[in-house]
């Protein structure tokens, strides 16, 4: 069908800028996606520190000094909150993304989420033991 000769206008659905604020599910989704920005910036900060570590002790110490700036501390507090929120929402999402069956029965979400928190606690404890 040739649309050039048609007098009908195509349907264009109006999309307002605040569409995601009208539904709690979409609001949570957008906030979660927004936290990934802080997580990725924090990853870049850590990679920058690794680069400075390779460049020698003076460069690494200068990087450590730059992290003592109040703005850097504020960013790290915000990044920590964003990472915790991101992890919490990911742990809650994982059973929906990966459905686990035992035989014909679907394993409920709660044990899967709890297992992730236990694994996080164990790995964190191991890291603290190794570092200390």
From TrEMBL:
GO terms for molecular function: succinate dehydrogenase activity. Its main location: membrane. The lineage of its organism: Bacteria, Pseudomonadati, Pseudomonadota, Gammaproteobacteria, Aeromonadales. It is a multi-pass membrane protein. GO terms for cellular component: fumarate reductase complex; plasma membrane. InterPro entries: Fumarate_red_C, SQR/QFR_C/D. Anchors the catalytic components of the fumarate reductase complex to the cell membrane, binds quinones. Coiled coil: none annotated. This is Fumarate reductase subunit C. Part of an enzyme complex containing four subunits: a flavoprotein (FrdA), an iron-sulfur protein (FrdB), and two hydrophobic anchor proteins (FrdC and FrdD). The keyword Cell membrane applies. Belongs to the FrdC family.
């Amino acid at each position: 069908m040739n649309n050039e000769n048609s007098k009908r206008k195509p349907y264009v659905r109006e999309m307002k800028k605040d569409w995601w604020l009208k539904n709690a599910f979409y609001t949570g989704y957008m906030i979660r996606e927004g936290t990934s920005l802080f997580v990725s910036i924090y990853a870049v900060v850590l990679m920058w520190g690794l680069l400075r570590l390779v460049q020698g002790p003076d460069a690494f110490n200068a990087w450590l000094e730059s992290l003592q700036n109040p703005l850097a501390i504020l960013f790290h507090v915000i990044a920590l909150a964003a990472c915790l929120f991101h992890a919490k929402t990911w742990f809650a999402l994982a059973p929906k993304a990966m459905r686990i069956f035992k035989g014909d029965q679907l394993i409920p979400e709660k044990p899967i989420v709890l297992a992730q928190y236990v694994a996080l606690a164990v790995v964190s404890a191991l890291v603290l033991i190794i570092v200390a």
